[in-house]
């Protein structure tokens, strides 16, 4: 039986695109900043006289703060309104950026990165929920397909931007570059982004859930990071404590009479469960690959950060092309078809990286990254559209927070797992770097196959027009 298709899409006008552009500036700052500092680790280590292990917490602290902030974003947007919450998040992010530029030691920089991460963690989820609320169900798919390309481009643009800044200026500009972008976003949002009223259902903040979920995720990621560094006791304590807190949160979410921070029951309701799995694995694949490849290019091939960024650029071009494709087809093609096709392209684009031991030429790597970029663009927007078009407007902030949390957690957990695998393969391969990286990419391929199995449970058609 042939798959049913949706009726002609609602028109996305210039005003809505302008709002989308403004809100995506916040997402751009937050996601690029997660990777822009990676190329400056050596510079920061020399500046503050810290070891690489110590200065690595500049990146890890930001990531943990993002993971901690995402779950609360839904409640804040529902309680105070989407635009107000988004503007506050931009303000916190800019405050953290300015403080980071003024840091006088590695410890102070790590603390200020936490402040920056708390603001950055709320921006993508709050912006997407606000945009979906303004667009309405019939236009959500097409407008989300435009803005969802930004998180895919950010891991590619971050190293390029960071390398360019350090080539012409000092390290504080890794953070100061956010200030003009954020200021422009706030001014434009106050003028052009309409106010969306808070949810009419005023729910109390789930304090117990917040104490269990956000710290539990952060501790789990910390434990996995310690595994990658070979520190057994902190790793065991972190993983055990993190998993215990997440189990306790799940039990609390199922039993509480109040609205939980993230409702565990959401994941048992189609299509949310399958959509969540797809985004979780997408995050692991995207951020995991962006962790492995720059490291391989610089350690295995001896490239500079700038050269590694250039070699990664085809993935960004592929993501942009895929976004255009999705924008034109998201309201015409069954969502499951788009997502499964996207995962298939990622699988095809990942296979060459399992053969890094044979040192494939740059043209093969560029082609594989382009294919992966197209595939990644075909997953995020359709998955979010599936959920956003089937949920009541007042529930959008919490649903958006849950989806972004899964994508972030997938990225952080996937990166941590792949770091452990890579360290193991480097030891097993007697420091044969290329083959060790190739072995690790078989795990990335496994993530993709797992996601493909889950994606087959996505619906064949869009939600009917209300």
TrEMBL record:
Arranged from A to Z, the UniProt key words for this protein are: Antibiotic resistance, Cell membrane, Membrane, Transmembrane, Transmembrane helix, Transport
GO cellular component annotations of the record = plasma membrane
Stored InterPro entries: EmrB-like, MFS, MFS_dom, MFS_trans_sf
This one is known as Multidrug efflux MFS transporter
Which Pfam families would you find in this protein's record? MFS_1
What is the recorded membrane topology of this protein? Multi-pass membrane protein
Q: Which GO terms describe its molecular function?
A: transmembrane transporter activity
Localization of this protein: Cell membrane
Q: Which PANTHER family match?
A: BLR6921 PROTEIN, MAJOR FACILITATOR SUPERFAMILY MULTIDRUG TRANSPORTER MFSC
- Major facilitator superfamily (MFS) profile domain location, by residue? 19-463
Cross-referenced Gene3D superfamilies: MFS general substrate transporter like domains (1.20.1250.20), Multidrug resistance protein D (1.20.1720.10)
Q: Which PROSITE patterns match?
A: MFS (PS50850)
Residues passing through the membrane, by range = 20-41, 61-78, 85-104, 110-131, 143-167, 173-193, 205-225, 231-251, 272-297, 303-326, 338-357, 363-388, 400-421, 441-458
Which lineage?
Answer: Bacteria, Bacillati, Actinomycetota, Actinomycetes, Kitasatosporales
Gene Ontology BP, a term? response to antibiotic
Organism of origin? Streptomyces spectabilis
């Amino acid at each position: 039986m042939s798959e049913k298709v949706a009726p002609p899409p609602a028109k996305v006008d210039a005003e809505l695109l302008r709002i989308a552009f403004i809100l995506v500036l916040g997402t751009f700052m937050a996601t690029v900043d997660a990777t822009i500092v990676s190329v400056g680790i050596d510079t920061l280590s020399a500046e503050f006289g810290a070891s690489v292990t110590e200065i690595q917490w500049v990146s890890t602290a930001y990531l943990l703060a993002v993971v901690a902030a995402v779950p609360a974003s839904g409640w804040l947007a529902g309680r105070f309104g989407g635009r107000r919450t988004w503007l506050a998040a931009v303000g916190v992010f800019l405050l953290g950026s300015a403080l980071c530029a003024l840091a006088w030691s590695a410890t102070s920089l790590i603390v200020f990165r936490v402040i920056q991460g708390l603001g950055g963690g709320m921006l993508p989820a709050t912006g997407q929920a606000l945009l979906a609320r303004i667009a309405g169900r019939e236009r959500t798919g097409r407008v989300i397909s435009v803005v969802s390309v930004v998180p895919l481009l950010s891991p590619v643009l971050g190293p390029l931007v960071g390398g360019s800044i350090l080539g012409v200026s000092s390290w504080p500009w890794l953070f100061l570059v956010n200030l003009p972008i954020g200021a422009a976003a706030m001014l434009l949002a106050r003028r052009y982004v309409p106010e969306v009223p808070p949810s009419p259902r005023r729910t109390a903040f789930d304090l117990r859930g917040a104490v269990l979920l956000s710290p539990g995720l952060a501790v789990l990621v910390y434990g996995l990071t310690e595994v990658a560094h070979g520190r057994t006791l902190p790793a065991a304590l972190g993983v055990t404590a993190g998993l215990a807190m997440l189990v306790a949160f799940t039990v609390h979410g199922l039993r509480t009479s109040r609205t939980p921070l993230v409702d565990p029951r959401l994941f048992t309701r189609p299509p949310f469960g399958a959509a969540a799995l797809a985004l979780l694995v997408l995050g692991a694949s995207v951020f995991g690959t962006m962790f492995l490849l720059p490291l391989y290019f610089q350690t295995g091939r001896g490239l500079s950060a700038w050269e590694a960024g250039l070699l990664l650029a085809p993935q960004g071009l592929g993501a942009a092309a895929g976004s255009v494709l999705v924008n034109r087809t998201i309201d015409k093609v069954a969502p499951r078809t788009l997502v499964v096709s996207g995962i298939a392209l990622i699988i095809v684009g990942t296979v060459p990286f399992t053969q890094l031991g044979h040192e494939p030429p740059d043209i093969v790597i560029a082609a594989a990254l382009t294919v992966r970029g197209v595939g990644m663009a075909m997953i995020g927007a359709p998955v979010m559209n599936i959920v956003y078009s089937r949920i009541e407007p007042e529930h959008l902030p919490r649903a958006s927070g849950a989806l972004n949390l899964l994508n972030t957690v997938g990225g952080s957990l996937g990166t941590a797992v792949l770091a452990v695998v890579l360290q193991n393969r480097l030891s097993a391969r007697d420091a044969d770097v290329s083959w060790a990286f190739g072995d690790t990419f078989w795990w990335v391929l496994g993530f993709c196959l797992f996601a493909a199995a889950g994606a087959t449970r996505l619906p064949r058609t869009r939600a009917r027009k209300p």
